[in-house]
Amino acid sequence: MTTKQKNSKKISLKKAVGKGYNRFWHFKGRYRVVKGSRASKKSKTTALWYIHNMMKHPEANTLVVRKTYRTLKDSCFTELKWAINRLGVSHKWDVKQSPLEMTYKPTGQKIYFRGLDDPLKVTSITVDWGFLCWMWIEEAYEILNEDDFNILDESIRGEVSPGLFKQITLTFNPWNEHHWMKKRFFDVENDSDILAITTDYRINEWLDEADLRVFERMKRDNPRRYQVAGLGNWGIVDGLVYENWEELEFDLEEIKKIAKIQSAFGLDYGYTNDPSAFFAGMIDVEGKTIYVFDEMYKYGLSNEKIYKNIVDMGYRKETIRAENAEPKSNDRLKYLGLSRIKSAKKGRDSVNNGIDFIQDYKIIIHPRCVNFLTEISNYTWDVNKAGKKINKPIDDFNHLMDAMRYAFEPFSSKPKIEILG
Question: What is the pTM of this model?
Fold first, then answer.
């Protein structure tokens, strides 16, 4: 028995994570896929599994992937640090933030972090010790192109030592039933290489009464969202507000060379239940094209933190049109240093007028804007009690959509020239 094995800490799944993940914990097939609601413990359970099993298997190494590298620090990296502390083994792990990396000190095993926005770094990983046999893809819904997943799938290959196994874990919120993962993993039968499960907040025994009331209000006030964010069911998407859009990587410096192209920035406020959303785009009026090149999408931000995020992104000197429902926030951000922030106008038909304007444009979205892609692919027209579409968008998936409307308000509100004759 090695020193590492003697020092391994056996954990009780029931005590560490709680109920609902027994099959997940013991499955050793190729694909372990978990769609779930908010607060369903899927990410925390996955993080605990990797830390526990890395220490259990001395030759295993893990690759953690999200669509964009910059989103890893506040998600998977944080969850894995939490798991290390939860298991009381922080003294056995070396955790580095630049670049993101975790090393199990007794053996030198590593957890690597990569984004699909740098594909060469994903496919060229070589390990110093053991085998790269496990991969965790967090927020896998962000990967809209199945071919991108296939590239990741092919990177976990080759023989491994007896007792090890190759496995890819995908965790995500199932916003759209048309996503390729549904057909590939959930619509198949009797495939021993696939475990596809659905979890929800009701298996999380550590939620308090206030947490549960959030879901009860969602169930009452927004039953459509409750089906996905509450119960983990596939979102049914019908009647998109914006259909003329495309995910495409582009060079912003080249886009800036387009004649008369202009930048536009918008901000929508949130806090606990809704994110603060910042939109950065370019508009080519003559070419009828909008380019979406950057975003911020974070919960629990004070005005000071919103300011810091925007400054860190490099947009302090830009003209930003922000939600006018919070004039105090706009004044505070201006005082802090966003001197060119302005309140968006709000009229009786401002939402639909803004939508009408944007619908005339082709929207090109950079792959790094993962939250924008999620919203625009789920932003639909609402329905009445009879189930018929009405001329009003749903009050959901609309934070960056609203920020985009604010940003382009100066263009959409320009008077049209009427030609007489």
Answer: 0.89
